[in-house]
Amino acid sequence: MGEGKSEVLQGTLDLMVLKTLYAMGPQHGFGIARRIEQVSDGVLDLNEGTVYTALLRLQQQGWIASKWGTSENNRRARFYSITKQGMKQLNREAENWQRVAGVMERMLKLERQG
Amino acid sequence: MGRLRTIWAKLKGQAVQSREDDAFTDEIREHITLLTQHYRAQGMSAEDATRAAHRQFGNVTQLKERQRWQRGMLSPVEWGRDVRFGMRMLAKKPGLYAAMVIALALGIGANTIVFSIVDAVLLRPLPYAHPERLMEVRSQHLLQDGAVSYPDFFDWRAQNHSFTELVSYHGESLTLTGVERPAHLDGEVVSWNLLPLLGVNPELGLGFRPEDEKLGARVVLISHALWVSQFGSDPRIVGRTMQLSGEVYTIEGVMQASFRFPADAPQNTFWTTLAVDNDGTPGATTANRGDHELAAMGGLKPGISEAQANAEMKAIAAGLSRKFPASNTQNNSAHVQSELKAMLGDTRTLLLVILGAVGLVLLIACGNVGNLLLVRARERAREMAMRTALGANRARLVRQLLVESLIVSVLGGLAGCTLAFVSTPAVLRLINDSVPRAADAGVNLPVLGFALVVSLASGLIFGLVPAITSARGDLLSPLKEGGRSETDVRNRLGSLVIVGQVALGIVLTAGAGLLVTSYAHLARSDEGFKPDHLLTFMFEIPDSRYMNNRSDFYRQYFEKLRALPGVEAAGGSLILPMTDNSMHISFENPEHPLPPGQLEDARFDLVSTNYFRTMNIPLLSGRDFSDADTVKAPPVMIVSRGFAKKFLHTENVIGKRLKPEAGNDGPVMREIVGVVGDVRHGATSLDLDPGYYLPATQFPKACCMYSVVRTQVEPLSLEPAAKNLVASMDRNIPVTDVRTMQDRIGLELAQPRFAMVLLSAFSGLALVLTLVGLYGVMAYSVARRRREIGVRLALGAPRAMVFRMVLHQAAVLVIIGIGFGITATLASGSILQSYLYGTSPRNPLVLAGVCVLVATTGLLAAYLPARRAMHVDPAVALRYE
After folding, report:
1. Judging by beta carbons within 10 Å of its beta carbon (0-12, 13-18, 19+), is residue B579 exposed, middle or buried?
2. Strands annotated E in B347-457
């Protein structure tokens, strides 16, 4: 992959998927991958397969639910949606992330002293 | 919570594994199709778009693997495969794995048996409503627990604030008469509020009322069994009467079939109130503060702790001691402890010791299996390296090996349970009734659960280490060197296991050796009389009809008894020696007067004429009692030699006078007319107890003596003749408790005997397992060093040196093990202390014997491999690949 791309940080993919489902309603894996690609503006180096690992993990935690529907091609596809618990988790994680991001930002802004 | 849910999802995932696989394949395919279309729409060629889509998606196979792992790492399909593969591995080496299964079966079987007993005796709560609140209250002096007297009990009951109910109880035997076949019944004399305390209701009737304790009340609750056998399950039994020892009792209820009180007295068939101990005279048992024969039990009030109750009862007892110094100086305290604990006493520790011992046996067995698995793992090092090289994941290999050891442990567990099931009855026979409630033991669900847990746990213990070490292995050396590389770690591990086994073996064998020594002391030491060819039995001569002519009855009876063919001598005694029963009664010595309450006391017995001759207790000086010693004759007594020495400080005591605190009409001064040898009162004590004897002929109100018959023939062959004789004199007097003296001693020795047999069996098992384990390790070590030995021999090493080399290797392990074992034994010796008679827990002879035994066993195990090493043919060994 070219320069200017970043690895997806451990744990952040789950948050991205949750947020996507929260913002866009039920989506299939492809839709989610597209949305992340779109929002990241090509900055993230995402193996789209890993989205499915995240989806399974989230599902096992009960934060998202899935049901079968039809894709744009009129073929069978699984659609994922966020659950109530998932929303709570999203709030928690988002807050947490913002706190960490805030700290990182302040850290990086520190001028050299002395 | 989240973790749990993940695990649940994984487990659930197994069930739908393959369906999920297919669905996921579809899902991925659709994603890639859509992605391809997406790139096509951006203007890529069909070929480029497909390639880009695949690249963007990532490794599909890897993803599927990961999804599968995440969904259910315990997929039943794969486990099934592991189990099948494991079975194939077992079948390949049937001898090796059979050795493991047998070792485990013995270990688990022994543990299951012991646990079934521990479960029945220690773990099951008492069969009453609030067993955890039931407390036994005993009188105490200088930390020695003792029985309570009625007046003390009444004061306890009135003054305490700790218990909802406080009841007294003591055993009683009465004769059921007025029925077709008179029978001797065991029962209990209790306070009226026993059933409210236990939270139990009768099957029929209502139970006792407070007025049932009043003077003259004769009421009884009967057991379900007695109701069925004697009263034909009559539903209208309540309110009817029955005759017990000639008195009329009103039946107030029938207890449930499962009811037992006390919990360790399943033979009890009736319960009556303490009114029967009150004859209305000032000397009645219920009025005598010095007559200690009661047990007391209470139910803690809610919010009161055992410690609080204990403190309160101690204070009450101390108060009574100050108020009644004459009778209570020796009972100035009290002791409250949980009922179950009080009932079990020392037996509890004994069972825990045995449980510990059998746990060690299992540990040794696990060590064996672990060692054999290590050997096996070394053999399979190549296979493992090959499989790792071919891409098997390490977790998979560990799992595979664990499955194998779990198969072994489950097979061992099954065989062990079968073993336990088959042999529990034999062990219970051995225990007899020496352990309360043990008769209820059986292989039931909790016990099977225990066996399952133990099997699986041992499978994990002995399986995990070999599995991890062999799956860790480096890839190259096993492949490179043709499978003969040696991993130091495993070797050291194997040696460590052997050292541990030897050490545990020493601990067990030393324990067994000490118990055997102690038992031999008990069984062989002098009883003070000749216990063989003695028949003993007893019958009750009821007060109601014989109050005034009991002596005549006994005189006629003994005359007829002595006349029976096969009878050499016959006599009677209130308390038989060697049965652990004894009664201590204090006495005044006019030469050394002491204040009341501080009188000395000694073991006491009431005997007939000819008793000493019958028992072969030597008459050392003076004379025996005779029929002339009647109530009207001068009061006399006989003392034992020990008594004379201890209390009168001389053996020359004929003609001296003492005043024992016993008598029909109060204590009287008695003249010593004879001195006899000392006897042991308990089979589990080695001391010859000083004691004194009074003539039954001067106590016509006392009931009832055991008959003792010295026979020329097999003692039990006289049972029918003796029974007929008694029936011919009074057909309403049934003879009961017929046993030979040796039988009685055997029963008394049941507990030390069963502890000894069990511990010996376990240590034997431990030695055999250690022997097999050491043999296995040595044999393997020799096989592995064949080439090295071949080289040594080829270079001119004498064969004897090779032999010594192998023995030396084994000896080092054994000696280190013995060192640890002896240290552990010396450190833990005090545990057995209270079960040892005539030997210290650190008896050097026993310990030395045990060391020799274990060392010999060890050398025996090393002998064969050492011989094999000596006979290695260098030519063959060097060519051997």
Report:
1. middle
2. none
The model's pLDDT over B143-160, given as tens digits with 9 standing for 90+, comes to: 888 889 999 999 999 999
Cis peptide preceding B703, ω within 30 of 0: no
The answer for A 59-78 residues in CB contact with B (under 8 A) is 59-62, 71-73, 75-78
Residue B99 lies in a domain: no
Please say which residue of B43, B74, B105 terminates a domain. B74
Q: How far apart are CA B519 and CA B41, in angstroms?
A: 96
Could you list the residue range(s) of the whole structural domain that residue A57 is in? 6-109
Q: How many helices (H) and strands (E) does chain B have?
A: 29, 22
Identify from A47, A64, A74 which residue to disrupt to test chain B contact, counting B C-beta atoms within 10 A and taking the largest count.
A47
How many structural domains is chain B composed of? Answer: 4
Domain assignment present for B83: no
* pTM score, whole prediction: 0.74
Site of tokens 């929002």: A39
Residue of B3, B12, B30, B36 to mutate, interface with A, max A Cβ within 10 Å: B30
Instruction: Name the residue among B448, B451, B454, B345 with its Cα closest to residue B121.
Output: B345
Residue B17 confidence (pLDDT) above 70: no
Do B67 and A33 lie within an 8 Å CB cutoff?
no
Tell me, yes or no, if A29 comes closer than 8 A to chain B by beta carbon.
yes
Please count the other Cβ atoms lying within 10 Å of the Cβ belonging to residue B615.
26
Contact B684, B523 (CB under 8 A): no
**Does B418 share its domain with B448?**
yes
Chain B residues contacting A, CB < 8 Å? 2, 5-6, 9-10, 23-24, 26-28, 30-31, 33-35, 37-38, 56-60, 63, 66-67, 70-71
Cβ–Cβ below 8 Å for A49 and B5 = no
B99-125: b (≥16 Cβ within 10 Å) or e: bbbbbbbbbbbbbbbbbbbbbbbbebe
Q: In this complex, do A49 and B58 lie within 8 Å of one another by their Cβ atoms?
A: yes
Residue reference for tokens 């009150």: B278
Q: What is the ipTM of this complex?
A: 0.85
Q: pLDDT of B712-754, one tens digit each?
A: 999 999 999 999 999 999 888 889 889 999 999 988 888 888 8
What is the token pair recorded at B600? 């000395």
| Residue B108, domain member (yes or no) | no
Contact B70 A59 (CB under 8 A): no
Classify residue A24: in a domain, yes or no.
yes
Residue type, B741: M
Q: Is residue B779 one of the residues assigned to a domain?
A: yes
Q: Which residues pair with B296 in a beta bridge?
A: B137, B168
Q: How far is B70 from chain A (nearest CA, A)?
A: 8
- Give the domain extent around B564: 540-733
What's the confidence (pLDDT) of residue B485?
Answer: 44
- Cα torsion through B517, B519, B524, B528, rounded to 10: 130
Which of B74, B92, B110 is the last residue before a domain boundary? B74
How far is residue B36's CA from residue B25's CA, in Å, rounded to a whole number? 16
> What's the total number of domains in chain A?
1
Q: What is the DSSP string of A55-112?
A: HHHHHHHTSEEEEEEE-TTS-EEEEEEE-HHHHHHHHHHHHHHHHHHHHHHHHHHPPP
CB neighbours of B762 closer than 8 A, spacing ≥ 6? B110, B357, B358, B360, B361, B508, B512
A73 contact residues in B (CB cutoff 8 A)? 30, 33-34, 37
Residues B407 and B470 in one domain: yes
- Whether B70 sits inside 8 A of A71 (CB atoms) is no
The more confident residue out of B331 and B821 is B821
Closest to B295 measured CA to CA, from B399, B188, B382: B188
Has residue B788 got a pLDDT over 90? no
Contact B34 A71 (CB under 8 A): yes
